[in-house]
Write a structure and sequence with these properties.
heterodimer, A: 89 residues, mainly alpha, Helix Hairpins, 3 helices, 85% helix, flat, B: 155 residues, 2 domains, 0% strand, elongated
Amino acid sequence: MLETVIPIALTLVAAAIAMSFWRLIRGPSVPDRILALDTLYVNTIALLVLFGIHLGSNLFFEAALLIALMGFIGTVALCKYLLRGDIIE
Amino acid sequence: MLEYFLSFLILTGAIFTLIGSLGLIRLKDLYTRLHGPTKATTLGVGSLLIASAIFFSTRDAGISLHEILITLFLFITAPVSAHMLAKAALHLNLKSLAKMPEDPVEEEQMQAVEEKTPMQNHIETPKTENPEPETKPEFTTQPTSPNTPTPNKTL
């Protein structure tokens, strides 16, 4: 059951990544692109976790945790730059 | 049995992730586009991570707590980043497709006039007569004009 479900889920998440990448390229405004980057890293976490289940290895969780941390910091820094024109005042 | 539950969680997670990105593409302006990734994608990734936690907890000895850490972190940070994005969009004066709300003070006055006149005709007449000449030239715009003649006739 899991062997058939995981490839389907992988393709769905890959399609989600492609869609958010399209918005990242196409986005008419800067916050659109930041939102697309935010979605992209969350989707990447989903892909990594799925791939970890698929391979049955524990190795990917640290990578997923790092991506979550760095992605959040990146989103906040970009928004701060848009808001104040400076990141660290 | 557990495998069916796990595959259900994985499929719902993947479908919700896809729905979130679909919302990112299909919705019209930024303020509505914020809803897709911040709600649907967070739910999808959360259920995927719960599925992974159950999978590795039942396969290996001991409970694997990494996924719960990532889930907590994502659930805390997603609203914060959405709030920051909305603040940045408001700061940049991005256009929203939603209509501007009408003036709430005028609406409240209109509703008060409409509600009170049929109920308390005789008590409210001295009070409602005074504001009406002042407010009437402001109210006689197109949307409010069908409402205003009826209380005037009853008075």
